[in-house]
Amino acid sequence: MTRKYRALIVDLDGVIWRGSKPLRDNIKALKLLRGKGVRIIYLSNNATRSRQEYIIRLQKYGLKADLNTVINSAYAAAEYVKEHGGYKVFIVGEAGLFYEASLVGLLPVAMGTEAEYVIVGMDRFVTYSKLAYACRLIKGGAHFIAANYDLTYPVEDGEDPGAGSIVEFLKGCSGREPEIIAGKPNPWILDLALRLNGVRRDEALIVGDRIDTDIMLGALNNVDTLLVLTGVSKPEDIERYGVNPTYIAKNIYEFLVENKELFSVYIAEGFEDSNCRS
Ligand SMILES: [Mg+2]
Predict the structure, then answer these.
(1) Disulfide: which of 20, 25, 66, 143 matches 251 by Cβ 3.0-4.6 Å?
(2) Which residues place a Cβ less than 5 A from the ion ligand 1?
(3) 18-57 burial, b for 16+ CB within 10 Å, e for fewer?
(4) Are strands 107-108 and 224-228 parallel, antiparallel or unpaired?
(5) Which residues have CB under 8 Å from 67's CB, separation 6+?
(6) CB neighbours of 119 closer than 8 A, spacing ≥ 6?
(7) Ligand 1 centre from 154 Cα, in Å?
(8) Measured between alpha carbons, how far is 179 from 167 in angstroms, rounded to an integer?
(9) What pLDDT is recorded for position 265?
(10) What is the spatial distance between Cα 179 and Cα 200, in angstroms, rounded to a whole number?
């Protein structure tokens, strides 16, 4: 059955921008869809920044967003802890994670202070003593929360260790598994995004550039997916991960031109290319 999509759940890195470079064909298509009433929800695994920072960056490219339509793994992890009654948290992570934790009403504590929860995200300022303290808390019974499990992340000249590598370190020394991995491809962040926007799984299309996170998120949770070739994954990677996107396209704009019937909003009004010059 062909579905009609009311909302797009869009990844950021590799879809909206790559490094400092905006990806114009994708941005153009999203503006067009939003103008036709399709809800655009941005979903990123990056836990180093706050949602507010993304809202400002998206605005620079003419994309409107707010705290309900931008969701990252820092916020998803913080929201999980809040909804499970947590308060004092020890954070291994960067400013975005501290900011989102504070914003939902958690209290990030310093080393040496007791905490019921340890939240782990990407931390480029990680130290041995920070990890040692987090490990003691986890071994002592604190909840072990991972913002995401991305072992690496792309940088200009290759790949560097991501949050998942820090999570692995803490798994090794504590002998415990995280209670939850908040980010993609796990259901928590997806369900949070859908809940905040009043969208059902069968009304949404996940758009991303990575098979192991974006496309896997849809495959594991029965949401249709569009793989765009503007970021890291290539068609030949599909076999490696054994997961098939519902659609593959060079970029969102090309997909839109070929598949306008998938967006029910077009049925009445038709599709006008002249609206979408950016
Ligand atoms: Mg990406």
Answers:
(1) 25
(2) 11, 13-14, 209-210, 231
(3) eeeeebebbbbbbbbbbebebbbbbbbbbbbbbbebbbeb
(4) unpaired
(5) 51, 52, 55
(6) 77, 78, 81, 89, 90, 91, 92, 93, 97, 101, 145, 146, 147
(7) 9
(8) 11
(9) 55
(10) 26
Q: What's the length of the chain?
A: 278
Q: Classify domain 74-181 by CATH number.
A: 3.40.50.1000
Q: Domain segments of the chain: what residues?
A: 7-45+184-276, 74-181
Closest CA to 91 of 207, 170, 27, 198: 170
> pLDDT for 43-72, tens place per residue?
999 999 999 999 999 999 999 999 999 999
* 196 alpha carbon – ligand 1 mean position (Å): 22
**Class in CATH terms, 7-45+184-276:** alpha beta
Q: From the CA of 209, how far away is ligand 1's center (Å)?
A: 5
pLDDT digits (tens, 9 = 90+) for 82-118: 999 999 999 999 999 999 999 999 999 999 999 999 9
